[in-house]
Amino acid sequence: MDASVPLASAGHYAEHETVLMPSRISSGRNARVASRLRKAVKNHPYAFAVGVVVCVGVVLVLAHTLKSSSSVSLQASPETCKFVVLGDYGRNGTSEQKAVAGAMGKYCDDKECEFIVTVGDNFYDGGVETVHNVQFNSSFEHVYTADSLYVPWYPILGNHDHKWARYSYQLEYTTFTNAKRWNFPDRYYTKDFSYQNFTVRLIFIDTTVMIEDYWNDEDYDYKQMKGMNETGQMDWLRTQVRESKADWNIVFGHHPIYSASSHGDTKDIWESLLPVLVQENVDAYFSGHDHNMQYLSKDFTVKGTVKTFRQFVSGAGSDLDFKLNQDHPQKEYAKTFSGFAGLIVSRDQLVVEFINAKNGVEYRTSISRRA
Questions:
Q1: Is the separation of the CB atoms in 283 and 248 below 8 Å?
Q2: DSSP letter at 7?
Q3: Distance CA 325, CA 307 (A)
Q4: Which residues contact 200 (CB under 8 A, 6 or more apart)?
């Protein structure tokens, strides 16, 4: 499909006590070491000896990491970047949420995930009331307990997180004493990762404030929402992509631009967000909001060059929506099951897998690195 992208001018902001074992929290690199240790101890006939040797290695790696950790956002790692995208999940540990958490633990143990990304609606139904809110335990800390999930988590806000102007407590939790995994510095932010022969830039945005329906909803603070309008954020986003030297630029927001499910296309962000994503060579956009798994794409012509916009929906972290429009013109794939997306990024290819919590990989596709 071929269409013209409208030109657009390309706000910013940066609950309950928990008990965690600090030794379980690790950087992505150390998580991979820990995973290999677990597998070696399990499978090797001389497991104890191997465990001792590898433990010494872990100590040395940790020491080296602490010594060379002057750059918070740039992390050196091996040949691939592996992580999970989870959406619409925080429901006090329901059976579906726990099933997804269990599948994530197995997937990340096998793939050696470096970190976890969430695409919003972290806490239903209306965010958290304080940094000490019990939901930080019941919907997060006490649900995602597999060793392989004790890696950095990078969340964004969904519309439910914004309700009653409570979003700031999720940002504050980042600095909470016992919050070892939660890394949420601002409403929108960037993380850069460096590997042996390629780099990745992840850009996290807040789409809720772009949608006028929320401005007029009594569950949201009108003045706050309107004050966080999208103009400043879009300028920031355009700059983050335009100035990026990374081989891969991936953006995460809660609301899908196109959707083959109940919410349908989010027209409020067509004219603001979509042009930036297409014109500035964003490789993929990941969202949640609809409680299923989708892949949608559309070709646009920009200055005589055809560019493909690719969007993935991963919103099946705890609740499901079975209403799907299989005739949506941008739909490549749409199916409802409890699960998440797994990403494997290398120098020349981005592989996206949709993981069913019960049945494993349901769908897999890949994107080639832009020229």
A1: yes
A2: P
A3: 25
A4: 81, 192, 193, 246, 247, 248, 250, 345
**Cα–Cα distances in angstroms (integers) from residue 98 to residues 45, 105, 141, 294, 357, in the given order:** 33, 10, 12, 22, 10
Q: Classify 264 in phi/psi space as left (phi over 0), alpha (psi -120 to 50) or beta.
A: left
- How many residues are recorded in the chain? 371
Contact call for residues 116 and 154 (beta carbons, < 8 A): yes
pLDDT in tens, 74-121: 444 468 999 999 999 999 999 999 999 999 999 999 999 999 999 999
Q: 263 catalytic, yes or no?
A: yes
CA torsion angle 365 149 192 18 (round to 10): 140
Strands (E) across 25-150 are located at 81-86, 115-118
β-strand partners of 11: none
Q: Residues 16, 162, 254, 263: which is the catalytic one?
A: 263
Only one residue has tokens 């962000």, namely 269
Compute the distance between CA of residue 233 and CA of residue 2 in angstroms, rounded to an integer: 28
Residue 299, CA atoms < 13 Å, CB-side half-sphere? 6
Q: How far, in Å, are 84, 182, 282, 288 from residue 115 at the CA level?
A: 7, 11, 21, 18
pLDDT in tens, 194-226: 999 999 999 999 998 888 777 676 666 655 655
Give dist(CA 204, CA 287) in Å, integer: 10
Q: How far apart are the first and last CA of the chain?
A: 21
Name the CA dihedral angle for 279, 281, 287, 290, rounded to a multiple of 10 degrees.
Answer: 50
